[in-house]
Specification:
The protein is α/β, with parallel strands linked by helices. It folds into 2 domains: about 160 residues; about 100 residues, no CATH class. It has 7 helices and 13 strands. The longest helix is centred in the middle third of the chain and has 24 residues. The relative contact order is 0.15.
Length: about 270
Amino acid sequence: MWNDNFTNEMDMNSLQKTPEQLIDEEIESLKMLPKSDMLQAQNEYREIEPLLLFLDISCTQIKRRHGQPIDFELKYGGKNIAIEITDVRPYLENYKIAKKATENVVEEVIKNMIIGDTISYFQIDIILKEKAYSTKRLKTNLVFQKEIQEFLQIRNCEGSQYIESFSKREYPDVSIPKDKLSFNFQYEGFLAKIPSECICNAISKKEDKLRDYKTLYGESFDEYWLCIGLPLEERGYSICGASLESNFISDYQRIYITQQLPPKTILLHNK
């Protein structure tokens, strides 16, 4: 359990450092761990960092429990708190396969519209609107085909139903085979709200573990918190607007959701 001398043993210089600097130092110290353990620990530190900033908690108040079921132990408000870390991946879990299929269709339509075997540009940067991803039989959609044709000619996105942004990286003095054309599908940034079912699924996976923790640790902890992190690679999603139903029930005393860029934390549940 927590060593009350832990804080006192900290170098006094650490009190002058920012939470970000202290976490960077903690992550640097993980290099001695096996690679899989190191990567997991790094991710957990990055996902809890916005929570520390949100609560104005010094890194001297928190301790990672290496090799233990509980991820972090925290001294806060006179209580000994166990914090479990997990993540939520709405893009990876629910949309990656479907979006990739749509993007393959877009690539095929564009290549079929290009006349000739060589072109003077090698990459197309494109942001599709959500309607493009949700429309069935996009390949034969006449409105979509017309928009693509217009973008290839004049690149005017105004009034488009399916495309948010479209640009070509052109090299007039260089010609490449059409089949070498590269596509870069981007997303609209941290704009889309995380579906509530993704958050609930992440919580549900940790509820059973919480019962095990309480059996294992007994009354060693006053409270159990869950911190849900949105990984950086979950492009196009933000925790902004994330919420749970008012009648939501959990055995965790608090549930937070965090994102790293820009740093943000939302308290979803407070028992």
